[in-house]
Amino acid sequence: MNQLNLPGFELKLSGTQDKPKILDILRRRYVALTPEEWVRQHFVHYLIEHKGYPQALMANEIQIQIGDKQLRADSVLYDAKLQPRMIIEYKAPSIPITQKVFDQIFAYNTQLHVDYLIVSNGLNHFCCKIDYATQSYSFLQDIPSYNEL
User: Fold this and answer.
1) What are the residue boundaries of the structural domains of the chain, listed by start?
2) Paired strand residues for 32
3) Are 44 and 75 in contact (CB under 8 A)?
4) Torsions phi, psi of 98, nearest 5?
5) Strand 29-32 to strand 20-24: parallel, antiparallel, or no bridges (unpaired)?
6) Tens digit of pLDDT for each residue in 54-70?
7) Is the pTM of this model over 0.85?
8) pLDDT tens by residue, 91-109
9) N or C terminus of the chain with fewer C-beta within 10 Å?
10) How far apart are CA 115 and CA 130, in angstroms?
């Protein structure tokens, strides 16, 4: 797998060389190790281990209904009242972060109404804060620590 612009963590792998799996600590099971999953697992560990995000308030693969479509947000952070607070969208390192990626995460936010959106391909990370009062958003210089949210 590719080297990412994220800190390493203690990998737990299983499966075979042809069909490797990685432990998803949020779903508590081994999942197929795809390039996007490689990014997701690194990013989740980064948020928990380096930014202080509570593991118990995070979830992966959250189903969202938009019209007649069933979609899945890659990761969602909840607050203590279990209201969505942040959506995180991952792409494989080979996928550039484009407007189409932001359109995807903004579509998810039409249902979840979170305060923060993050997009990462493991190499580049973008975080924006939504201001519903002014109907605008601003990009942040860094991913905020949990206590800064």
Assistant:
1) 13-148
2) 21
3) yes
4) -120, 180
5) antiparallel
6) 999 999 998 988 888 88
7) yes
8) 999 999 999 999 989 889 9
9) C
10) 5
